[in-house]
Amino acid sequence: MHRQNQPSPAKFGIGQHVRRVEDRRFVTGHGSYVADTVIPGECVGILVASQHAHARVVRTDIEAAKAADGVVCILTADDLAADGVGGLLPMIMPPGMSGPSTVSPVLVRERVRYVGDPLVFVVAETALQARHAADLVEVEYEALPATVHVEDALREGAPILWDVCPNNIAFELAHGDPEETTRAFARATHVVSLKVVNNRVSANPIEPRAAIGHFNLADERYTLHTNSQWPHGVRATLANDVFGQSESNFRIISPDVGGGFGMKAQAYAEDALVLLASRRCGRPVKWLSTRSEALMRDTHGRDQVMIGELALDAEGRVLALRARGLHAVGAYVFAAVLAPLEYSIKVLPSVYDIKTVDVRTRGVFTNTSPLSAYRGAGRPEANYMIERLLDHAAAQLKMDPLELRRRNLITPQAFPYETATHYKYDSGEFARLLDRSLEIADWEHFGNRRAASEARGLLRGCAAVFCLEAAGLLNEAMEIRFDPSGTATILAGTHSHGQGHETAYKQMVSEWLGIPFESIRFVQGDTDQVTIGRGTYAARSAVAGGNSLKRAAETIIEKARGMAAEMLEVRVADIEFDAGTFRVTGTDLMISMPEVAKACCNMRALPPDQVVGLAATGSFGFEVPTFPNGCQVCEVEVDPATGLVCVDRLIAVSDVGRLVNPLLAEGQIHGGLAQGIGQALMESVVYERDTGQLITGSFTDYAMPRAADLPNFSTDFIEVPCLTNALGLKGCGELGTVGSPPAMITALLDALRPLGVTDIEMPATPARVWETIQLARKTG
Predict the structure, then answer these.
(1) Do 210 and 287 form a contact (C-beta atoms < 8 A)?
(2) 123 touches 138 (CB < 8 A)
(3) Contact assessment for residue 303 and residue 150, using Cβ atoms and an 8 Å cutoff
(4) Which of 179, 183, 528, 556 has the greatest number of beta carbons closer than 10 A?
(5) Which residues, other chains included, contact 364 with Cβ-Cβ below 8 Å and sequence gap of 6+?
(6) How far apart, in whole angstroms, are the C-alpha atoms of residue 360 and residue 169?
(7) Considering only CA atoms, which of 433, 91, 111 is closest in space to residue 240?
(8) pLDDT single digits (tens) 7-38
């Protein structure tokens, strides 16, 4: 029996500004990364990749390479075929698809389809020896015509990548009612249309991909160290698709990961190759991507062309939306490429009350690196289309763009609201977001700032746009486990690679179980320790992981309640729990959660109905997505003499539901804004149009934003709790990226409109802006 006071967890509870506990090891150089991992006896692998965008492989000669100094083993497609090795299947199979175009080979034997297609894996004692031997591999090609642009791929006579897809169309997706949409357009007072291009971009995380494979002959188990966002997904792909073995034969360890952005959510050929090579040579094999290899072989994002049309009545209310998209999938249907295509049309109505739609998109094969999810995955494309289209409509109707948006917003009274693409929004206060954004942006004094810019020979523009995304996929499992000393450990099925999960989850558990924040341990990224996990992407972790943790905590309390009653010698019904303490109702008799946890692990006899130990797993599944949303205001200044665009201010007011940790949420929004600015103003993966050669193969050619290119972001949050999960969370990891490209480009066009400019493609580099200005002046 104990009488004691427990420390309040309020300082570290939900809603508090708690600094990330992970940062201490990161900023002091004590992070644990795959590249830093050294396994005794390891050797090094180098991938020989195709130099052609499209070619038949006539002959592969590895004899000179085998004789090179330090070579341990070499793998070819023939070796893999002899061992019965399979290929990599998509994480989500498009409807109606099957066949070779959906199987990405670990090594290619007969026909390469993009620069970077994997051909040979060379393993040597050192990286230098492996690279030297790789240079000795001779591959004879019969070059074939290539196509790298989605519109080119559909033209008559275009090179065909797959015989089963003679028009280069991989699959089609559609939502809406074409007949009703046609009728709405027929009765419209105004019809406007616009073609927009979403440029191809690369994720470029601070840590490139890496893998170490080790086959243990003693137990015939494979261990893979890889910097993945979804280690359990990697295990499933390798076990089921590549090796054809039980998942229990594989252990995937994903330690600290320096960024992923969707690109690291799937298994790659190199993950399989290091394991296959280790099995063959009997030693651990390490592979590390260079930055140039990453730009060539990592999955890319965006690469979409879309034409949108709006039908409006005389007052500017949208009657119907029609859209037709072409979205590159690259050389293979790989990983989660279905996701951006689906979201790019399903999220098109965004925050607007558009009751009738006919929206379609097609996935198109091109001789390029495969496409997959990249931060936002289709939501940025959808929001870019609808926001650009509304601005274009406002210009055509000679209406204030803000007024046009306000007239078409979904009102709070309309919730729950079902979109014409069959999404069900549970909550939102969109007009309130706009008002708060304009207030922070000092919108009413923009005219003064524009006059000041013009006095200096510069152009100034501003824009306010909305953004909305559908967040969350799959169910999740999270475990809370107490050890015999009474210390709690969180075993997370999600995977943090910069989001701050360790901090956020500890805040939750500290509040719910009333135990000290600092004493809670956190484990993730090891499939031998975490039984089930769905990884982190699609802004899912706070909702799926948090609600799973909540259920685990509730189960822990109920399990511990019986032991507490036994220890305090009362009925279970007389025990109440609050702030980490089990108390006998109406008395000062109490006992702490850690003490009860210790008792549950007691080696002596326990009550008959008490299981040894104290642990619980909670799970949560998405019945419907959550819908984070926001409003962004951008203001830019343009030098017409050079085309240089300066982002003067960028304001983001977001509704991500209940805030677990405002600092973490702000950081997530900041990162998303930076990536959106990168796409809008400078980033672009470029292939040579005729040959398919990668032109932007290094950071000399692929521009990345630096601190000097970004403004001091202003962020704020309006908490409108989500009604579809107990914690009221919506997610926030992708929202900044969803809104910033249309905010940037519409603000830029506002600045250039007095010169007669009505459109510009991303990225709006100084050269492109200058050329657009010159063309406008020339054409009058």
Answers:
(1) yes
(2) no
(3) yes
(4) 556
(5) 150, 153, 154, 168, 169, 170, 326, 327, 328, 329
(6) 13
(7) 91
(8) 344 678 899 999 999 999 999 999 999 999 99
The reported pLDDT for the residue numbered 4 is: 36
Q: What is the pLDDT of residue 287?
A: 98
Contact 465, 402 (CB under 8 A): no
**Cis omega before residue 763 (within 30°)?**
yes
Query: Can you tell me which residue has the tokens 């990749």?
Result: 49
Tokens of 231: 């280690």
Average pLDDT over residues 614-638: 96
Nearest to 717 by CA among 9, 17, 22, 11: 17
Question: Could you tell me the maximum CA-CA distance found in the chain, to the nearest angstrom?
Answer: 92
Answer whether 141's CB lies under 8 Å from 55's CB.
Answer: yes
DSSP states of 672-712 as a string?
HHHHHHHHHHT----B-TTT--BS--STTTS----GGGS--
- Bond prior to 416 in cis (omega within 30° of 0): yes
What is the model's pLDDT at position 605?
66
What tokens were used for 570? 């009362």
**Distance in angstroms (rounded) separating the CA atoms of residues 358 and 201:** 28
Q: What is the mean pLDDT of residues 42-55?
A: 98
Q: In the sheet that 357-365 helps form, which strands lie side by side, from edge to edge? A: 169-176, 357-365, 318-330, 304-312, 190-198
Q: The tokens of 496 are what?
A: 């943090």
608 has pLDDT over 90? no
Pairing relation of β-strands 111-112 and 190-198?
unpaired
**Shortest CA distance to 200 belongs to which of 329, 335, 32?**
329
Q: Using CA atoms, how far apart are residues 312 and 185, in angstroms rounded to an integer? A: 8
- Determine how many CB atoms are found less than 10 A away from the CB of residue 569: 9
Burial 697-724 (b: 16+ CB within 10 A, else e): beeeebbebeeebebebebbbbebebeb
The encoded tokens of residue 286 equal 């390490």
335 within 8 A of 370, measured Cβ to Cβ: yes
Using alpha carbons only, what angle is made at residue 771 by residues 766 and 774, rounded to the nearest 5 degrees?
Answer: 125
Decide if 464 contacts 744 (C-beta within 8 A). no
CA-nearest of 362, 451, 270, 365 to 53 is 365
What pLDDT, in 10s, does the model give residues 286-301? Answer: 999 999 999 999 999 9
Chain-wide mean pLDDT for the chain? 96
Gyration radius of the chain over CA positions: 28
Name residue, tokens 């090579």: 277
Residues 192-207: tens digit of each pLDDT: 999 999 999 999 999 9
Q: Which residues contact 491 (CB under 8 A, 6 or more apart)?
A: 478, 479, 480, 481, 523, 524, 529, 530, 531
What CA–CA distance (Å, rounded) separates 77 from 640? 54
Amino acid present at 337: V
Give every CB contact of residue 262 below 8 A, 6+ residues apart in sequence. 203, 229, 299, 301, 336, 372, 373, 374, 375, 377, 537
Q: What tens digit of pLDDT does each residue of 299-329 get?
A: 999 999 999 999 999 999 999 999 999 999 9
Q: What is the pLDDT of residue 179?
A: 98
pLDDT in the model for residue 10: 60
Q: What is the secondary structure of 707-761 as a DSSP string?
A: GGGS---EEEE-----SSSTT-B---TTHHHHHHHHHHHHHHHHHHGGGT----P
